[in-house]
């Protein structure tokens, strides 16, 4: 069995590498197929990690060894693979990597099952694909060569080869930047702020202020969208970048602030003896399911975890907890922290 499972793992990983190489081959001339092949490779690598744990983990339900060996089975979806890696294997795909993989999955699904609005994949759209694939490869490479290195050690040379082949993607992005650089410099002279893109690395991300210290940007090269808060370190007062996730580490002094500390520094609602029991914050976030993560800031409501902004928060009609989601039917349906009257009565019936 051990030898058989090792052989299965090798074959599945070889297949994933093959799809990845095809994605690189097709990038310039057949970008649509490049997207399909790239995502296929990502999914196969996730399944290979599950297979290393046990072959049954890549079967949706009713695992049957004989059917598995003949290929007569339904394999797990992307979401199920991620869930099993987290809950069973105890080696989860990081949230950022999962988000980047999912972006490619959605593009792949549009092309395979319906259509893609970007059928004319040229110019800036090609740059967006290049950036998307580079982000996904960065995350995938880290999983394969660091977190899961013992599992895929025999394929290290192939991963190194893929890393070199993706130089073509970076050269494509460089060419895009060279074309756009004069226009970017003109905008900078007019006072427009540009930052270094967190994905492709070029100083081509046009920044806009959402609130006084909250900014968002979109890269003109690869279309990567970013959002950050200029956060003042609680120890040394140096201003650093707070991104979604709920924690902050100061690059200057190394001090760390968790979600609660960040909330206390950002929240501008003043609690008094008169409003203590009716205070709308800390509220819960329906965007990221953050608990007590929404603060009042600049007459808006800002989630310190996902950095989403809301105009108002309201109390749940069932449990009374404040949140930034739609509370119109919350008495029955509940909110992010309760199941409402319907769920309450169903649990009692059980």
The structural domain count equals 2
What proportion of the residues is helical, as a percent range?
40-55%
Q: Which regions contain 5 or more consecutive residues with pLDDT less than 50?
A: none
Order of helix and strand elements from N to C terminus: HHHHHHHHEEEEEEEHEEEEEHH
- Please summarize the sheet with the most strands: 5 strands, antiparallel
- State the strand order across the main sheet: 1-2-3-4-5
Rg, nearest Å: 24 Å
- The percentage of residues in β strands lies in 5-15%
How would you describe this protein?
A hairpin with a 4-residue loop joins strand 2 and strand 3. 46% of the residues lie in helices and 13% in strands. With 350 residues, it is of the alpha+beta class. The protein contains eleven helices and twelve strands. The protein starts with a helix and ends with a helix. It has two domains: 2-173, no CATH class; 264-349, no CATH class. The chain has helices at 2-26, 31-53, 65-70, 78-87, 95-113, 124-147, 156-165, 167-189, 259-266, 330-333, 340-349, and strands at residues 194-196, 203-209, 214-219, 225-232, 239-242, 248-249, 256-257, 294-297, 300-303, 309-310, 314-315, 322-323. Helix 2 crosses helix 5 (95-113) and helix 5 (95-113) packs across helix 6. The strands form four sheets. Strands 1-2-3-4-5 form a five-stranded antiparallel sheet. The chain has a three-stranded antiparallel sheet with strand order 8-9-10, covered by helices on one side.
């Amino acid at each position: 069995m051990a030898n058989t499972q090792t052989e299965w793992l090798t074959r599945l990983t070889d297949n994933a590498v093959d799809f990845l190489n095809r994605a690189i081959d097709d990038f310039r001339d057949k970008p649509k197929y490049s997207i399909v092949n790239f995502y296929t490779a990502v999914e196969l690598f996730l399944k290979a990690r599950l297979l290393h744990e046990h072959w049954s983990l890549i079967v949706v339900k009713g695992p049957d060894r004989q059917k598995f060996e003949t290929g007569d089975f339904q394999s797990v979806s992307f979401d199920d693979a991620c869930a099993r890696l987290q809950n069973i294997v105890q080696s989860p795909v990081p949230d950022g990597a999962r988000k980047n993989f999912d972006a490619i999955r959605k593009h792949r699904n549009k092309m395979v099952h319906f259509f893609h609005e970007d059928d004319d994949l040229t110019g800036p759209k090609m740059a967006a694909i290049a950036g998307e694939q580079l982000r996904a490869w960065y995350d995938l490479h880290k999983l394969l060569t660091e977190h899961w290195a013992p599992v895929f050690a025999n394929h290290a040379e192939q991963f190194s080869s893929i890393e070199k082949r993706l130089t073509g993607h970076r050269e494509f992005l460089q060419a895009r930047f060279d074309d756009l650089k004069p226009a970017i410099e003109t905008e900078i002279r007019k006072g427009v702020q540009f930052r270094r893109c967190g994905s492709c690395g070029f100083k081509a991300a046009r920044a806009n202020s959402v609130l006084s210290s909250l900014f968002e940007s979109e890269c003109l090269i690869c279309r990567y969208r970013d959002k950050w808060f200029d956060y003042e370190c609680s120890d040394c007062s140096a201003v650093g970048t707070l991104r979604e996730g709920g924690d902050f580490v100061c690059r200057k002094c190394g001090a760390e602030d968790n979600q609660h500390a960040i909330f206390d520094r950002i929240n501008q609602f003043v609690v008094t003896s008169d409003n203590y029991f009716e205070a709308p914050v800390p509220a819960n976030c329906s965007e990221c399911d953050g608990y007590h993560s929404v603060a009042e800031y600049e007459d808006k409501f800002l989630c310190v975890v996902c950095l989403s902004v809301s105009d108002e928060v309201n109390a749940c009609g069932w449990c009374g907890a404040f949140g930034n989601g739609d509370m119109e039917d919350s008495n029955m349906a509940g909110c992010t922290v309760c199941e409402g009257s319907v769920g309450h009565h169903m649990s009692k019936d059980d």
